[in-house]
Amino acid sequence: MPELPEVEALRGFLDERLTGHTVARVLPVAVSVLKTYDPPLDALHGQTFTGAARHGKFLDLATDGGLHLVVHLARAGWLRWQDSLPDAPPRAGKGPLALRLYLAGPEGDGFDLTEAGTQKRLAVYVVRDPSEVPGIARLGPDPLAEDFTPEVLAGLLRGQRHRIKGLLRDQGVIAGIGNAYSDEILHVARMSPYKLASELDEKRIAALHAAIGSTLREAVERSRGVAAGKLKSEKKSGLRVHGRTGEPCPVCGDTIREVSFADSSLQYCPTCQTGGKPLADRRMSRLLK
Question: What residues does the FPG-type domain cover (predicted)?
Answer without folding.
Answer: 240-274
